[in-house]
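Lecture notes, continued. The same structure-token format from the folding unit now serves as the input rather than the output. Read the line below as a description of shape only.
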């Protein structure tokens, strides 16, 4: 999650909610030292681990990485203006992270060969959708799995467990 200070942002949100590290850890089901190490930027949490911690506040991944909102409403974005929210292996770049009153999260995602979202399926309140731009990717949604190839779209309803996996030779 380079280019973004995860530890400082987590500490800022935790303190703004008057939560101790111990209380946040208890709510999230992680150890107190996990929260401490993340806030010190000694460890970089996986996206699923960070989501588990943020759910305990509650704060969405998008809100976490958005930071403070911009005063004006930007409409067009260059690639270097996207906010990286990946875990160093997976690249998830959030479009319009700091846009005021944003009600949709649009991500530009890149998965290297052999990458996956881990054992824990991802869930959140919003709908999901995507189109494979290049390569192919195996997607599991609510227990159903399919390999999608270039130009194939997918959608899912809110709170459906979702996971992604790449073959050792493909990228998407």
């Amino acid at each position: 999650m380079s280019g973004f200070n995860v530890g400082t942002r987590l500490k800022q949100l935790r303190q703004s909610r008057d939560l101790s590290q111990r209380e946040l850890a208890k709510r999230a089901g992680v150890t107190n030292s996990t929260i401490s190490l993340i806030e010190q930027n000694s460890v970089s949490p996986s996206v699923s681990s960070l989501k588990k911690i943020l759910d305990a506040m509650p704060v969405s991944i998008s809100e976490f990485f958005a930071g403070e909102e911009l005063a004006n409403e930007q409409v067009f974005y260059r690639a270097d203006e996207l906010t990286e929210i990946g875990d160093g292996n997976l690249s998830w770049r959030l479009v319009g992270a700091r846009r005021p009153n944003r009600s949709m999260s649009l991500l530009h995602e890149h998965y290297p060969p052999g990458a996956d979202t881990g054992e824990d399926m991802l869930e959140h309140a919003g709908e999901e959708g995507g189109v494979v731009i290049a390569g192919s990717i195996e997607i599991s949604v609510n227990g159903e799995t399919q390999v999608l190839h270039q130009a194939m779209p997918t959608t899912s309803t809110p709170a459906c467990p979702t996971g992604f996996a790449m073959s050792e030779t493909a990228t998407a």
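Point for the exam: The mean pLDDT is 81.
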